[in-house]
Amino acid sequence: MKKKLIAILISVFALSSCSSGGNASITNVDATTFISTITDPNIQVIDVRSIGEYSAGHLQGALNIDVESGGFDAGISNLDKSATYALYCRSGRRSTLAAERMAEAGFTNVINFNQGGFAELAAAGAATE
Q1: If both were cysteines, with which of 74, 84, 86, 91 could 109 make a disulfide (CB 3.0 to 4.6 Å apart)?
Q2: How many C-beta neighbours within 10 Å does residue 16 have?
Q3: Does 129 fall in a domain?
């Protein structure tokens, strides 16, 4: 299982990366890849929707940092910039904005589900709470 996950991650990063300067990397993925990627306990899932949307349902273990709140930059400021983060929202627009802001802030490994959002991930079998 671990070898399969590593192979998926390597191919995802190799095929889908786009640089935002320096060593920053944003990887845009589909629902299946996102779900298989977040099974790695070393990847922190971040829901960038509003607290109301998050409270109505979110991916299991997801941290909520609203990209459209005034506190997004403060919310990411204490995170490890070399760790891997997987972002999602409702439609892909806000997660893309958040991924770009994180890359600009020096984060080096950001996985972005930009082909839908929470509802699509839940329908594809992601664990929710």
Answers
A1: 84
A2: 16
A3: no
Q: Residue 127, Cβ neighbours under 10 Å: how many?
A: 13
59: CATH:
3.40.250.10
d(CA 59, CA 2): 22
What are the tens digits of pLDDT across the range 18-46? 444 456 789 999 999 999 999 999 999 99
Instruction: Give a yes or no: residue 128 inside a domain.
Output: no
Q: Could you list the residue range(s) of the whole structural domain that residue 35 is in?
A: 2-123
Q: How far apart are CA 20 and CA 104, in angstroms?
A: 7
- CA dist 31 and 115 (Å) reads 7
Torsion of CA 75, 109, 13, 113, to 10 degrees: 0
β-pairing verdict for 26-29 and 109-113: parallel
